[in-house]
Amino acid sequence: MRRFTWFVLALAGCSSHATEPSVPQSPAGEAWLSQRQIADAKIVVAPVGDQDVGGAIVASGKVTFDDLRVSHVFSPVTGRVVKILANPGQRVKKGQPLAVIASPDIGTAFSDLEKAQAEFNAAERDLKRQKELYDAHAVSQKEYEAAQNAYGKAKAELDRARQKARLLRAGNVDAVMSEYTLTAQIDGEVISRSTNLGVEVQGTYGGGAAPELFTIGELDKVWVLADVFEMDLALVKKGARVSVKVVAYPNKVFEGHVDWVSGSLDSNSRTAKVRCSIDNPLHDNGPQRELKPEMYATVSVSVAERKALAIPRNALLRLGDQTVVFVEKGKTPDGQLRFERRPVAVDEEEGGDYLPVTHGLDPGERIVTSGGILLLGLI
């Protein structure tokens, strides 16, 4: 800041030395500089013309799992965790044990199965006997239909009990110890574990809100869900190249492509989800799997470029709530170059190095593209 102030004062001093009392001073909103001052300030001037604009849409997004490469593990039974067999960061194979839960639900399930089997057998025998009596006209149709109904209910209860027992057996049940072993459903890394020894857990079969106990996934490929505004949605195509940046690694760009565009908009934000597939490999040195689920990201989606009257992004200056540029307006009688400060309107939503001009400039006008901040200090 001190160097900038000194430089502006030096320019002003040179100007006052070079200007004779009879030479008029620059009016408000203009800066007059000699060729030497322009060279010392490294001010660059270029004509305004048509440029390739667009080329990218910038949107906010969030890193998520590839949902085909992640498994959320819940306990089907209510009980107490008695063994932890996998820890965060550990790689596991499909079917590998994760934890053991001691649960009274197991004993209840198998006892219900035995009871349902006994009741079914009794109903089946009764139905057979009632049919023989009905055929011999020894009982009424009502009694025979009652036996049929009892048989149907017993069969339905037996099917339910068998299904529950079958689901429990799929998780390596020890019916003697009343223990249920949670197993991995996919190959992957234990991303998180939210239980410990002795913790009482709710089961999904109990009808309550069961907590997620383990998250297993592969992070070598992740998704970034970007929120693209409705006005830009038509430009985004499946397969388009994307560049992603995250706060944790501000100087690194992650490359990927668009693999899905949502068919609907969010009614509040008027944005659509655009899913980007990003490689997230292991490295021999440095951070491993840099992209983590739930990271916020800035996503740049490549789109087709178009021609438009545009100015370089770095030519634009902020003055309060205005955006301005400096326009070259010819020479003064003593040979100094005149630069006029002019408000302009541009489309700052466009990606790329050039911004389309919507108001304030005409083709062929020459503007300051570098060093304009120094001219602000002279006005």
Please describe what this structure looks like.
The structure is a single chain. The chain is α+β, with helices and mostly antiparallel strands and 379 residues long. It has helices at 2-18, 35-41, 104-135, 141-169, 372-376, and strands spanning 30-33, 44-47, 49-65, 70-74, 79-84, 91-92, 97-102, 173-174, 179-183, 188-193, 200-201, 212-217, 221-229, 241-246, 249-261, 271-279, 296-312, 317-319, 322-331, 337-343, 345-346, 354-359, 366-370. It folds into three domains: 2-54 and 307-376, conserved putative lor/sdh protein from methanococcus maripaludis s2 fold; 58-67 and 219-305, Elongation Factor Tu (Ef-tu), domain 3 (Beta Barrel); 76-216, Helix Hairpins (Orthogonal Bundle), CATH 1.10.287.470. It contains five helices and 23 strands. The strands form five sheets. A six-stranded antiparallel beta barrel has the order 3-13-16-15-14-17. The radius of gyration is 37 Å and the shape is elongated. The two termini are 18 Å apart. Mean pLDDT is 85; it is low at 1-11 and 14-22.
Write the layout of secondary structure elements.
Elements: H1 2-18, E1 30-33, H2 35-41, E2 44-47, E3 49-65, E4 70-74, E5 79-84, E6 91-92, E7 97-102, H3 104-135, H4 141-169, E8 173-174, E9 179-183, E10 188-193, E11 200-201, E12 212-217, E13 221-229, E14 241-246, E15 249-261, E16 271-279, E17 296-312, E18 317-319, E19 322-331, E20 337-343, E21 345-346, E22 354-359, E23 366-370, H5 372-376
Antiparallel strand pairs: 1-20, 2-23, 3-13, 3-17, 4-12, 5-7, 5-11, 6-10, 7-9, 8-9, 10-12, 13-16, 14-15, 14-17, 15-16, 17-22, 18-19, 19-20, 21-22
Helix pairs in contact: 3-4
